[in-house]
Amino acid sequence: MNQIILFRFHSHYDVCKERVRIIKHFNPNIPIYALFGGDKSDWEVVKKYFRDSPLEEIQISTNEDRYWKWLHPEHTLREWYQLHGHKLKFDLKIGGDE
Hints:
Blueprint: E1 5-9, H1 13-26, E2 32-36, H2 43-49, E3 55-60, H3 66-71, H4 73-83
């Protein structure tokens, strides 16, 4: 099974960076991608802050309203997939074990 992890975050970069590090520690063979849903004005800071993290790639949601992005994660995830995720090789499994 080809797996990836998509880590979505908005703020508290130090906590998020540590969470990504812990996730990678327990899942060393699974690539981690990130989707930033915070303010566009913070984007350059976020890219620099996570440069030395175990993230494969980090993207920003194109919607300008950070509160809308926080309230509607399904739309930001769909956008991420349409712009970036479809280029990655991974298996999509929906639902529990049958």
